[in-house]
Amino acid sequence: MRSLRTAATAVAALAITLSACTTAAATPSPAAPSIAPSAVAPSAPASVAPSTAASTAPAASIIPVPSGQLAFADKLVICSDIPYPPQEFFDANASPIGSDIEIGQEIAKRLGVTPVIQNSVFDTIIAAVTTGKCDIIISAQNITTSRIKQVDMIPYFQAGQSFVVAAGNPTGIKVQNDLCGKKIAAETGTTEIDYLQGTGDYKGQGLSAACTKANLAAINIKSFGKDSDALLALQATQVDAYFADSPVAGYYTVQHPDQFALSGIAPLQPAFEGISVPQSNTGLRDAVQQALVSMINDGAYLNILKKYGDDSGAVTATDAGTLNKLK
């Protein structure tokens, strides 16, 4: 949910990829996205390789986590739904990278533990953290009333929502009413699906309902278990548009201008995204929040966002010092 980011020149070829525009990347780069195979989070983090970027902060700067708050005393297991570039995706070696990934790694460093990235399905990612499959979630999750009933969320980013269409916008999606009667793809469990359907925090203001109120055809909503599958449906001309957070939407159009473009509809509904922590783990929550605030104050946070072109979505230390901030 941010703005357009910098372009890259190569895309790594992995098992699931945008076939028409993929070339092998000799050297992985944070700006070179790859759409990797979707994966269901394994039952134990031992099956997920620790991040190669893991490091330990100097002892004087370690923020302690109370005993018993982590699944593994020396690890911070982070659930993230990959791919969702530029916030979380795989490099040419199938290693997780992205602004969310690096924020999580830096938080772990400041807690004095090793980060472990666990690829998860977004629709069940809250269940993964509340049942102990991971310690926290960093995965472009909007802070919503339904989510904060289940977890505590620390604001760490802010963004809107955008529509991606085929290059040249052949179906002519330029204003909101142009969505009516069209096939629109989005990932299951996201606020995009809620916004299309008029569910969750968007009850009474759904985009499809707005069409029928205007005596136009309802939107034909197509949901997919992985975000990359929703994008591939657009590439395959199975849908007319793909609906996602603005930074993600912008990233794909910059990477693949021959295939994708942003629609004429301005980004919708800016919102905070949050790092989710089980409500029972207040000690871990407070330590993660302290680490994030320290990252913002010393510039490490903004440096990460700039690396991925995400800095327009940066939050302040004051924002990060709050909890469950909806607007």
Report on the structure:
The chain is 25% helix and 19% strand. With 327 residues, it is of the alpha/beta class. The protein has 2 domains: 19-158 and 270-320, Periplasmic binding protein-like II (D-Maltodextrin-Binding Protein, domain 2), CATH 3.40.190; 161-269, Periplasmic binding protein-like II (D-Maltodextrin-Binding Protein, domain 2, 3-Layer(aba) Sandwich), CATH 3.40.190.10. The strands form 3 sheets. Strands 6, 7, 8, 9, 10 and 11 form a 6-stranded mixed β-sheet that branches. A 3-stranded parallel β-sheet has the order 4-1-5. The protein has a two-stranded antiparallel ribbon with strand order 2-3. Helix 1 (99-111) packs antiparallel against helix 8 (300-307). The model is unreliable at 1-59 (pLDDT under 50).
Topology:
Layout: E1 75-80, E2 89-90, E3 96-97, H1 99-111, E4 114-119, H2 125-130, E5 136-137, E6 151-166, E7 183-187, H3 191-197, H4 207-213, E8 220-224, H5 227-235, E9 241-245, H6 246-255, E10 260-262, E11 268-278, H7 282-298, H8 300-307, H9 317-320
Parallel strand pairs: 1-4, 1-5, 7-8, 7-9
Antiparallel strand pairs: 2-3, 6-9, 6-10, 6-11
Helix pairs in contact: 1-7, 1-8
Q: What's the short story on this structure?
A:
With 327 residues, this protein is of the alpha/beta class. It contains 9 helices and 11 strands. A hairpin with a 5-residue loop joins strand 2 and strand 3.
